[in-house]
């Protein structure tokens, strides 16, 4: 019996040792994977071990597919500007000889184009607005109850337009970056409202917008900077950078556009460097952006590099948007979601080389990767074909010049102008009104036992909100109630 017991104990001990070994190995593997991911996503080292690259997550990118933009008539109509006259509702546009046509030098900074002029000047710009409106028509109108059914999350603002005035109703801003972006969006919208033609009053609407890169509640009817193809409930707005962006060598968008034009007078196409340039922070999208660095490493056509902001020599690595205009080719790579740098790159008379995009911005429908109106070059998301594409562009300089010229004509001189931005905002408000509720300016407020009622005005006018100090703007109205009043 004792011999049998000893054998059983040995077997049990052997099984325990095996389980312990397997458990320890699994724990070691998990620790290795976690450490590898943390190192790979946070490291500024341009070269990583192959094994670390293999375990890097793709983040929010669904790399098996990309968004396909289909807008068959946008650029064709922009070139001819003929189809929209037949549908014009404003008969003051005039006869064939007197028809209004968008002229960049005259109209690019005209924030007050009327609705017909907006549609004549910017066909295709409002595609995503129409898509969102049609989606909402199927689902049913946005009600006050629906808009109040979810709490504001990081970077969100609830606002209202009433009798042509912009009101801030509620904010949830967690840091100064949130605050700056929200103020820029409000400023852009306010400019579009106040510049509207007198004969076309702005509708009363109430809405929620977010300035976060990643939509926290993509199934809600929220105005947002970018969306994925599956985020059908979101409505796209121009991003904060169209007002201004407090970053090195940026500032107001129109200021950067002016500098890009001036750069061309001293550095025309033939004097540009025949290389592909890119600068960015790789940790924003480590798998995607490291693929770009790997594909360009050691190539004669490459000036692709990262900006490691934490290093003392980051200024030597940095290249501002206008400095990048000195290159014939500019690479584009998405970040945590979309990349706000694309619109600045499209101000240059250069060939934009972008991977297949997954995040849609309001003007992306005008991007064309093939045909005579091609205005950028598309490569695979892993940049596996980048070298072949660059060799082809370098071998056919006339093709590259045509693409660069098309980009300027499409974006810098039309769809990214201040006039286009104002038109987009007003069209967004109009279509949102068609599928949403009528807001009220005053709320009923019970006093005492509820027998006496009076009305209380909702929110605060934009002009006043802009004067609030930093803490008061962050979580309005809660933060306003907590802030002490400062008297004379």
Measured as a percent range, the helix fraction is: 40-55%
Largest beta-sheet characterization = 5 strands, parallel
Strand content: 5-15%
Total helix count? 19
Q: Compute the gyration radius: what is it?
A: 27 Å
For this structure, the quaternary state is single chain
The rough form would be described as globular
Kindly name the structural category.
alpha/beta
Strand order of the largest sheet: 9-8-10-11-12
Which spans of ≥5 residues are poorly predicted at pLDDT below 50?
55-66, 77-93
Termini Cα gap:
97 Å
Whole-number total of structural domains:
3
Mean pLDDT: 84
Number of strands: 15
Can you give a write-up of this model?
The structure is a single chain. By secondary structure, the protein is α/β, with parallel strands linked by helices. Helix content is 41%, strand content 14%. It starts with a helix and ends in a 6-residue tail after the last helix. The chain has 3 domains: 2-42; 74-245 and 422-434, no CATH class; 252-417, Glycogen Phosphorylase B (Rossmann fold, 3-Layer(aba) Sandwich). The protein has helices at 2-42, 50-55, 74-80, 104-107, 115-121, 127-139, 144-147, 176-194, 253-266, 286-296, 314-317, 321-324, 342-345, 386-395, 397-415, 418-434, 462-465, 470-474, 478-482, and strands spanning 156-162, 165-172, 205-210, 223-224, 235-236, 244-245, 251-252, 273-280, 302-306, 327-332, 351-355, 377-379, 442-447, 452-457, 460-461. Helix 5 (115-121) packs across helix 16. It has a 5-stranded parallel beta sheet with strand order 9-8-10-11-12. It contains 19 helices and 15 strands. Pfam families: Glyco_transf_90. The chain crosses the membrane at residues 21-40. Residues 201-433 form the Glycosyl transferase CAP10 domain. Keywords: Membrane, Transmembrane, Transmembrane helix.
